[in-house]
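Researcher: Here's the sequence for the chain we discussed earlier.
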Amino acid sequence: MRLGQEFPNQVLAAAALYVGCRESKMPLTLKDFAGASGSDPRVVGRCYMKLLQRMHIARPELKEDGYVYPLALKRPVSDQALKQSREIIDSIVSKGLGGRNPMTLAAASLYIACCNMGENITQAEVAEAAGVGEQSVRDCCKEIRLLARQPP
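Model: Thanks. This is the structure I predict for it:
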């Protein structure tokens, strides 16, 4: 079965654009493309995975720290918190916590960095700015803290 028969054209276009943005390391989310196409993010995600499979494309790795700056524009934080957030992301990705929603990882690292810097911010505020669930940020923060305790 062809992808054009399996998915509507707007979903196929959104998934194809998402593939291009992932490969060029642009910090856009699947939700951005699903919203622009008027489609369900889960359907676009399934189409994205089918595209990768059918075209024999390896799933492009994301550099999560690219998502921190757009997030910080929605919820202003200090430059020191931004810098520390990027350091946290580099540290945890090198220890193997990649593969999560990049916005969740960026939100959790920004929250932890702000706490370390003494900035007054809540997980709910960061989650709302990132467009992810508060529970997702909370769970990711726990995983980051666990990884931080482990020796490299």
